[in-house]
Amino acid sequence: MRKIGVLPDVITYNAAISACEKGEQWQQVLRILAEMRSVSVLPDVITYNAAISACEKSEQWQQALGVLAEKRKISMLLDVITYSSAISACAKGEQWQQDLDSW
Fold first, then answer.
1. For the chain: N or C, fewer Cβ within 10 A?
2. What is the DSSP letter of 87?
3. How many Å apart are CA 17 and CA 54, to the nearest integer?
4. How confident is the model at residue 37 (pLDDT cuts 50, 70, 90)?
5. Tens digit of pLDDT for each residue in 61-76?
6. What is the DSSP letter of 43?
7. How does 3-30 read in b/e, with b if 16+ C-beta sit within 10 Å?
8. Count of domains in the chain?
9. What's the pTM?
10. For the purposes of burial, counting CB atoms within 10 Å of the CB of 41, is it exposed (0-12), middle (13-18) or buried (19 or more)?
């Protein structure tokens, strides 16, 4: 996109994250999140939920909770999808003792 002079926006990034989520490419999702920050594109609730879900599907509970912590750090509203994905990630990792409010 950049080669033809089109700058990606949050919708473009969300589409890329969603595609990576479906392909269980959690590492690529985290790279896309980092890129968004580096180019000053603000992630939205869809971005974070898809990122947490990608980590959950790949059984990366620590990464899922890291994304949840990032979302909380910027005071973004947490919704049922956010918590459901994070809880599912902890369950898959057999991390029942994790306190989601501490993240």
1. N
2. H
3. 8
4. confident
5. 778 878 888 777 776 6
6. P
7. eeeeebeeeebbebbbebbeebbbebbb
8. 1
9. 0.78
10. middle
pLDDT, greater one: 90 or 9: 9
Q: Are 90 and 99 in contact (CB under 8 A)?
A: no
Q: Write out the two tokens for 65.
A: 């909770």
- Most confident of the following: 10-14, 57-61, 81-85, 90-94: 10-14
Coil, strand or helix at 99? coil
Residue with tokens 């990122």: 51
Name the residue among 26, 18, 11, 14 with its Cα closest to residue 63.
Answer: 26
Asked whether 36 and 8 are in contact (CB, 8 A), the reply is no
Cα distance between residue 44 and residue 58, in whole Å: 22
